[in-house]
Write a structure and sequence with these properties.
The protein has no helices and 11 strands. By secondary structure, the chain is an all-beta fold. The chain has a single domain, classed as Rieske [2Fe-2S] iron-sulphur domain (Rieske Iron-sulfur Protein). It binds FE2/S2 (inorganic) cluster. The site of FE2/S2 (inorganic) cluster has 11 residues, from loops.
Protein backbone atom coordinates (compact mmCIF):
# COMPACT_ATOMS: atom_id res chain seq x y z
CA UNK A 1 0.00 0.00 0.00
CA UNK A 2 1.36 3.39 -0.94
CA UNK A 3 2.07 6.03 1.65
CA UNK A 4 -0.59 8.71 2.06
CA UNK A 5 -0.09 12.41 2.38
CA UNK A 6 -2.70 14.90 3.59
CA UNK A 7 -3.24 17.60 0.98
CA UNK A 8 -5.15 20.89 1.27
CA UNK A 9 -7.26 20.94 -1.90
CA UNK A 10 -9.90 23.62 -1.40
CA UNK A 11 -11.89 25.80 0.92
CA UNK A 12 -15.32 24.50 1.93
CA UNK A 13 -16.82 27.67 0.46
CA UNK A 14 -15.49 26.74 -2.99
CA UNK A 15 -17.74 23.68 -3.12
CA UNK A 16 -21.09 24.32 -4.78
CA UNK A 17 -24.27 23.20 -3.03
CA UNK A 18 -25.06 21.06 -6.06
CA UNK A 19 -22.32 19.85 -8.36
CA UNK A 20 -18.63 19.40 -7.76
CA UNK A 21 -15.17 20.83 -8.31
CA UNK A 22 -12.04 19.10 -9.57
CA UNK A 23 -8.54 19.62 -8.17
CA UNK A 24 -5.20 18.15 -9.25
CA UNK A 25 -2.41 16.62 -7.21
CA UNK A 26 0.44 15.53 -9.45
CA UNK A 27 -1.19 13.46 -12.18
CA UNK A 28 -4.16 12.62 -9.99
CA UNK A 29 -7.45 14.48 -10.47
CA UNK A 30 -9.74 14.57 -7.45
CA UNK A 31 -13.43 15.38 -7.57
CA UNK A 32 -14.79 17.07 -4.44
CA UNK A 33 -18.48 17.25 -3.63
CA UNK A 34 -20.82 17.87 -0.72
CA UNK A 35 -23.63 15.60 0.35
CA UNK A 36 -25.79 16.21 3.43
CA UNK A 37 -23.22 18.57 4.94
CA UNK A 38 -20.27 16.23 4.48
CA UNK A 39 -17.49 16.55 1.92
CA UNK A 40 -16.36 13.59 -0.15
CA UNK A 41 -13.47 13.00 -2.54
CA UNK A 42 -13.20 10.49 -5.37
CA UNK A 43 -10.86 10.13 -8.31
CA UNK A 44 -12.03 12.02 -11.39
CA UNK A 45 -11.74 8.91 -13.55
CA UNK A 46 -14.45 6.44 -14.45
CA UNK A 47 -13.56 2.79 -13.90
CA UNK A 48 -15.40 1.68 -17.06
CA UNK A 49 -13.46 3.29 -19.93
CA UNK A 50 -11.54 5.96 -18.00
CA UNK A 51 -13.56 9.05 -18.93
CA UNK A 52 -13.30 12.12 -16.73
CA UNK A 53 -16.46 13.17 -14.88
CA UNK A 54 -16.02 16.88 -15.72
CA UNK A 55 -19.17 16.94 -17.87
CA UNK A 56 -20.96 14.39 -15.71
CA UNK A 57 -23.89 14.98 -13.38
CA UNK A 58 -24.19 14.78 -9.63
CA UNK A 59 -27.60 14.14 -8.09
CA UNK A 60 -27.38 13.80 -4.33
CA UNK A 61 -24.64 11.27 -3.75
CA UNK A 62 -25.04 9.78 -7.23
CA UNK A 63 -22.32 10.68 -9.76
CA UNK A 64 -23.08 9.86 -13.39
CA UNK A 65 -20.37 9.38 -16.00
CA UNK A 66 -20.95 11.50 -19.13
CA UNK A 67 -19.62 8.86 -21.53
CA UNK A 68 -21.79 5.75 -21.01
CA UNK A 69 -23.89 6.68 -17.99
CA UNK A 70 -22.40 4.51 -15.24
CA UNK A 71 -23.25 5.77 -11.74
CA UNK A 72 -21.13 5.82 -8.61
CA UNK A 73 -21.68 6.71 -4.96
CA UNK A 74 -19.45 9.69 -4.12
CA UNK A 75 -19.36 8.58 -0.48
CA UNK A 76 -17.27 5.48 -1.18
CA UNK A 77 -16.85 5.17 -4.96
CA UNK A 78 -19.06 2.09 -5.19
CA UNK A 79 -20.96 1.27 -8.39
CA UNK A 80 -24.65 2.21 -8.44
CA UNK A 81 -25.34 1.65 -12.12
CA UNK A 82 -23.94 -0.15 -15.18
CA UNK A 83 -21.99 -0.42 -17.41
CA UNK A 84 -19.19 -0.02 -14.82
CA UNK A 85 -18.51 -3.02 -12.61
CA UNK A 86 -15.55 -1.75 -10.57
CA UNK A 87 -15.65 1.06 -8.01
CA UNK A 88 -13.80 4.34 -8.47
CA UNK A 89 -11.16 5.30 -5.95
CA UNK A 90 -12.33 7.30 -2.95
CA UNK A 91 -10.19 9.23 -0.50
CA UNK A 92 -10.58 10.14 3.17
CA UNK A 93 -11.52 13.78 3.79
CA UNK A 94 -10.80 15.83 6.92
CA UNK A 95 -12.17 19.31 7.47
CA UNK A 96 -9.85 21.74 9.27
CA UNK A 97 -11.85 24.90 9.78
CA UNK A 98 -12.67 26.05 6.27
CA UNK A 99 -10.11 23.82 4.59
CA UNK A 100 -10.74 20.50 2.85
CA UNK A 101 -7.84 18.11 3.50
CA UNK A 102 -7.68 14.89 1.51
CA UNK A 103 -5.47 11.85 2.16
CA UNK A 104 -3.85 11.02 -1.19
CA UNK A 105 -1.16 8.62 -2.33
CA UNK A 106 2.15 10.45 -2.48
CA UNK A 107 2.77 11.73 -5.98
CA UNK A 108 5.84 10.15 -7.53
CA UNK A 109 7.37 13.54 -8.28
CA UNK A 110 7.05 14.55 -4.60
CA UNK A 111 9.20 11.68 -3.32
CA UNK A 112 12.58 12.68 -1.88
CA UNK A 113 15.78 11.49 -3.60
S1 LIG B 1 -16.40 5.56 -19.32
FE1 LIG B 1 -17.79 5.94 -17.70
S2 LIG B 1 -19.48 4.66 -18.13
FE2 LIG B 1 -18.10 4.24 -19.72
Amino acid sequence: MSKLTRVDLAGVGELPEKGFIVRSHGELQILLARFKGEVFAVENLCSHAFARFDDGRLRGMRLMCPLHGACFDIRDGSVLGKPASAPIQSFAVTLDGDRVLVDLPEAAECKPD
